[in-house]
């Protein structure tokens, strides 16, 4: 820590606080900052008013492929990727911004978020280690999260081809999927960024 500049350290503390506020687990903070575990725990307690939860992070890629989580994960990852590629955001800056935009879109549609911050971070890490990738649906042309090496020629997404569950559950799930699906299809990241900036102005 001795040779690290005060400004760098301050930025890391700010990022850690923002991540904690959004629901990050301790492992996320330990991986993404150089701050000591003891400091992070202290920070966590100050921000949340309680000790960080213990236990392992979710490690399986399968959760992101199940139906409703897949639609939410795909929406989030599309936002994240566009912030990185089109808006030149750096990795963690893009991550936090994408997660805020994801939450904002769902609240506008009165839909419940399915993807927590720690899950979203795990998703990005799975992409970075080439366990997951995006694949274009052959029917609607939107991009969805899939296991790496999924054959693209025949891929159809979970919105175009929902699982065949009978009755009410299916109807409710389709309604729940409708909002994020529509956003993934139609909303451009520019519109999302404008929304975010308008919200910033309102709160300023
Ligand atoms: Zn589709």
UniProtKB/TrEMBL annotation:
List keywords of the entry alphabetically.
Activator, Bacterial flagellum biogenesis, Cell projection, Cilium, Cytoplasm, DNA-binding, Flagellum, Metal-binding, Transcription, Transcription regulation, Zinc
Named cofactor requirement(s): Zn(2+)
The record's cofactor note says:
Binds 1 zinc ion per subunit.
Which locations, inside or outside the cell, does it occupy? Cytoplasm
Which residues are listed for Zn(2+) binding in this entry?
137, 140, 157, 160
**Domain of life of the organism encoding this protein:** Bacteria
Entry keyword annotation includes Transcription = yes
Assembly information from the UniProt record: Heterohexamer composed of two FlhC and four FlhD subunits. Each FlhC binds a FlhD dimer, forming a heterotrimer, and a hexamer assembles by dimerization of two heterotrimers.
User: What does it do?
Assistant: Functions in complex with FlhD as a master transcriptional regulator that regulates transcription of several flagellar and non-flagellar operons by binding to their promoter region. Activates expression of class 2 flagellar genes, including fliA, which is a flagellum-specific sigma factor that turns on the class 3 genes. Also regulates genes whose products function in a variety of physiological pathways.
Q: Which family does it belong to?
A: Belongs to the FlhC family.
Q: What is this protein called?
A: Flagellar transcriptional regulator FlhC
Q: Which organism is it from?
A: Modicisalibacter zincidurans
**Lineage of producing organism:** Bacteria, Pseudomonadati, Pseudomonadota, Gammaproteobacteria, Oceanospirillales
């Amino acid at each position: 820590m001795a040779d690290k500049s005060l400004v760098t350290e301050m930025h890391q503390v700010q990022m850690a606080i923002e991540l904690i506020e959004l629901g990050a687990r301790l492992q996320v903070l330990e991986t993404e900052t150089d701050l000591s575990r003891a400091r992070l725990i202290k920070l966590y307690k100050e921000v949340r008013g309680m000790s960080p939860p213990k236990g392992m992070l979710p490690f399986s890629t399968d959760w992101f492929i199940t139906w409703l989580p897949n639609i939410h994960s795909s929406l989030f990852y599309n936002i994240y990727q566009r912030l990185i590629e089109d808006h030149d955001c750096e990795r963690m800056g893009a991550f936090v911004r994408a997660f805020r935009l994801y939450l904002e879109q769902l609240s506008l549609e009165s839909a419940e978020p399915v993807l927590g911050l720690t899950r979203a971070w795990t998703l990005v890490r799975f992409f970075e280690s080439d366990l997951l990738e995006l694949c274009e649906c052959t029917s609607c042309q939107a991009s969805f999260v899939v296991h790496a090496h999924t054959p693209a020629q025949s891929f159809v997404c979970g919105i175009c081809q929902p699982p065949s569950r009978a009755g009410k559950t299916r109807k409710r799930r389709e309604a729940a999927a409708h909002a994020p699906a529509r956003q993934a299809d139609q909303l451009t990241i520019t519109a999302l960024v404008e929304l975010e900036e308008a919200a910033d102005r309102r709160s300023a």
